[in-house]
Amino acid sequence: MILSETSPLRTIIGHELRALVREGTFSALLGIFLAVTLFSVFIGWSTRSTTLAIYATTVATLNGAGVSHVAPNPLLGVSTLAIFNNLIIYMLLVGALLAIVIGHRSFVRDRRSGVIQLLLSRPAGRPFYIAGKLCGTGIALLSVLLGMFAVSSASTLFIPSLHLSGGEFLSLSAFYGVSFIYLSFFTALGLLFGVYMPNESMSLLLPIIAWIAIVFILPELSTGQNPVALLNPVTLAHAPQALGTFFSSARAILSPFSFGQDYVALALHFLRINSETFNIGALFKLAAAGLAADAACVFALWKYSAAADQIL
Questions:
Q1: Whole-angstrom Cα distance, residue 91 to residue 272?
Q2: Quick check: is 60 in a domain?
Q3: Domain of residue 103, residue span
């Protein structure tokens, strides 16, 4: 069996997970994400409660002044899932950076310790090592997101005004699923640069520069929006498209690589913050980017030679 107790793949996955726990990386990642989840719920609940209180006070004041017709509560048309909108920002920023660190540390750790030389010297060691690395980092990331989903779901159960329907729970699950695809790309990116770059500092700096380009620079060049517009997902959904030959041409060329926007569009849809229809093209681009990054990691690890490694 591939994942039997003596399976090399299971051994490598276990080694990866134990190393993350031993370094404190996994614990720190889990703690940070659970904290931002609770923080997001608190902000969303507080904002919602404040808006309801203001509306109630306004209605009472208008009724006292003899006004008979009052506009309906603006929150009636807003999904309860909107309380999680800050999680989109946290995923874009904190999540992507921590995912890069996980991927980067995954390979650099083995280079420094000399473990990779031992593993790759075993019969059929390279295929199991590659699969184990990708599975190990993926399981760690998935575990964190499952923890976030559990905290998100539990928080809505204990706050009476935030109960979710069955359909909303499914939408919340889909949001975390899309977040996993998005973060997996950056985990693979950190791993990829960790393999290719002979300098350890540059192997961490370059994927961060790539993250800046994907999240900030490419959306600005392809849409002409303010570079921080992506960090305001509520208004981004209704932002006007830039006109002009330059931005039209840039959009056509850069749009396939600007999947930070695709993630935001999908997240807005699943959290029901906007009424736009599901964008299957955005999901395809996001998944294709993740698969391409994984394929690049497989190729890099397959061609890796410990004898030519300048860090060892």
A1: 17
A2: no
A3: 16-43+83-308
